[in-house]
Task: inverse folding
C-alpha cells in the first residue's frame, strides 16, 4: 500500500483487515498500542490472508510479552505493566477474522494470551487487581473490578461497562475504562452471554434480556465496600447501545445509562437489510416465513461479500447460537425496547456518530424516552463520525464522562 493510501486512513491492504487492524488505533491514548506497532503489523501482513493477519498480530504480542517478562525480571514493574497491556491489545486484534464455528483453536490461543497478559498487567497495578467471577444462573461471568486511579480505598461511583457483539474486557478497558478510572470512577467490566470468554470458551450465546444479566452484576457490585451503591451507572457500546438501555428498563438500581450508539430495536435493522436485498414484505416477514428461494438468494449475496459473510455467518450465527438465516433473524427480533422504553427512568445518554448506520433509529429512540435524556452527536469533521467513534475515543470519553459527572451529581 502506498504512503498516499495510508494518509487517507487505511493502514492494511485489505479493507476487511483494516476494519479489525485499526481497533488498536482507538486505544493509543489509553496505552493499548502505538501507531508504529500497528503500521509494523500492517507492513508484515501486506496483501496476505487471514492467517497472515493473525500471525503478524500474535508475533507482535509475543514480542511485547517477552519484553514485559524481561522488564519484570529486572524489577521494572511499571514498564513491564505497560508492555503487558500493549501485548494484550495486539493479541486481542489478531483473531476477529477467524470468528465462527467450529471455533478455531488459534482464536482461543490468542484470546488466552490476551487475557493472561492483561491479567498480569492488572496484578502489577497499584493496588493489584485480580479477576472476579460474578454468580449467574448456576455459573459465573468473568469480570474485573478496577478501583479509581489513586482512590482505591474510597467509596466512589461505579461505572459498569458492557460490550456488544465482538469485543472483550480488554477492549472496554482501553476504550472507556482508563478514562473513567482517571476521572474518579471505579470500573467494573464483564463478559456477558455471547461475549468474550462466555462465547469463546463456554459457548454461551447472546440473549436480549440484558436486565437479567445486569441484575447479577449489580448484585455483585453491591457487595463491594468501595462502591457507592446509590451511584452505579451502566455504559454499553456497539450492540451494548441496545443492551445497556434494555438493562435499564428492568434494573431500577442503575443511576444512569449510556448507549453508544443509542439503539432500541435490532429487528428494524434486520428489516432494512432484508428490504435492501429485495425481500417481499420485509417490514413484517418473520424468519420462519422466508421461503427457500429467498433464503438461497440472500445467502448467495452474503457469501459473495466478505464483510457481510463475517457479520452474518461467522459472527451472527456463532454469537446467537443459530445455524441459519431464519434462526438468526428470529433470534434478533427479540432484541427490542419498543414495548419497554417507558420503563427506563434513570438519566440516559444516547450517542449518534454521523456515518454510523446503527444510528438510523437513534433519533426515534431519543424521542420515545420519557426519562431525563441527552443526545450527543459526533461528526466526521471532528474525527468521530464512525461506529463507536473508535479512532477518537478521547473525545467521546470527555463528553460522556462530563455528562455522567453531572447526571450522578444531580441524582
Result:
Amino acid at each position: 500500500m502506498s504512503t498516499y493510501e495510508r494518509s487517507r486512513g487505511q493502514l492494511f491492504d485489505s479493507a476487511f483487515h483494516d476494519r479489525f487492524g485499526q481497533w488498536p488505533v482507538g486505544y493509543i491514548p489509553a496505552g493499548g498500542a502505538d501507531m508504529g506497532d500497528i503500521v509494523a503489523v500492517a507492513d508484515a501482513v501486506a496483501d496476505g490472508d487471514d492467517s497472515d493477519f493473525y500471525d503478524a498480530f500474535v508475533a507482535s504480542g509475543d514480542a511485547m510479552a517477552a519484553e514485559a517478562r524481561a522488564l519484570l525480571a529486572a524489577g521494572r514493574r511499571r514498564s513491564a505493566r505497560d508492555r503487558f497491556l500493549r501485548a494484550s491489545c495486539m493479541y486481542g486484534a489478531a483473531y476477529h477474522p477467524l470468528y465462527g464455528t467450529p471455533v478455531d483453536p488459534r482464536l482461543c490461543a490468542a484470546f488466552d494470551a490476551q487475557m493472561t497478559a492483561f491479567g498480569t498487567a492488572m496484578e502489577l497495578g497499584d493496588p493489584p487487581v485480580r479477576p472476579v467471577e460474578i454468580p449467574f444462573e448456576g455459573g459465573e461471568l468473568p469480570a474485573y473490578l478496577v478501583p479509581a486511579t489513586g482512590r482505591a480505598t474510597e467509596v466512589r461511583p461505579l461505572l459498569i461497562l458492557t460490550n456488544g457483539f465482538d469485543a472483550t474486557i480488554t477492549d472496554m478497558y482501553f476504550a472507556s475504562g482508563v478514562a473513567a478510572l482517571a476521572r474518579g470512577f471505579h470500573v467494573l467490566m464483564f463478559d456477558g452471554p455471547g461475549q468474550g470468554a462466555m462465547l469463546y470458551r463456554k459457548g454461551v450465546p447472546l440473549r436480549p434480556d440484558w436486565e437479567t444479566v445486569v441484575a447479577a452484576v449489580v448484585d455483585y457490585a453491591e457487595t463491594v465496600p468501595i462502591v457507592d451503591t446509590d451511584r452505579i451507572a451502566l455504559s454499553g457500546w456497539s450492540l451494548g447501545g441496545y443492551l445497556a438501555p434494555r438493562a435499564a428498563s428492568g434494573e431500577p438500581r442503575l443511576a444512569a445509562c449510556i448507549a453508544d450508539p443509542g439503539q432500541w430495536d435490532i429487528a428494524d435493522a434486520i428489516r432494512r437489510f432484508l428490504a435492501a436485498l429485495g425481500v417481499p414484505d420485509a417490514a413484517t416477514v418473520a424468519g420462519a416465513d422466508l421461503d427457500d428461494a429467498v433464503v438461497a438468494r440472500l445467502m448467495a449475496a452474503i457469501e459473495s461479500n466478505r464483510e457481510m459473510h463475517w457479520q452474518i455467518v461467522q459472527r451472527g450465527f456463532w454469537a446467537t447460537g443459530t445455524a441459519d438465516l431464519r434462526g438468526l433473524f428470529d433470534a434478533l427480533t427479540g432484541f427490542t425496547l419498543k414495548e419497554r422504553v417507558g420503563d427506563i427512568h434513570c438519566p440516559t445518554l444516547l450517542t449518534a456518530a454521523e456515518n454510523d448506520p446503527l444510528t438510523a433509529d437513534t433519533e426515534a429512540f431519543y424521542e420515545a424516552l420519557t426519562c431525563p435524556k441527552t443526545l450527543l452527536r459526533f461528526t466526521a469533521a471532528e474525527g468521530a463520525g464512525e461506529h463507536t467513534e473508535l479512532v477518537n475515543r478521547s473525545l467521546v470519553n470527555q463528553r460522556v464522562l462530563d455528562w455522567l459527572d453531572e447526571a450522578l451529581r444531580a441524582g
About this structure: The first helix runs from residue 3 to 7. The first strand starts at residue 132 and ends at 136. The mean pLDDT is 94.
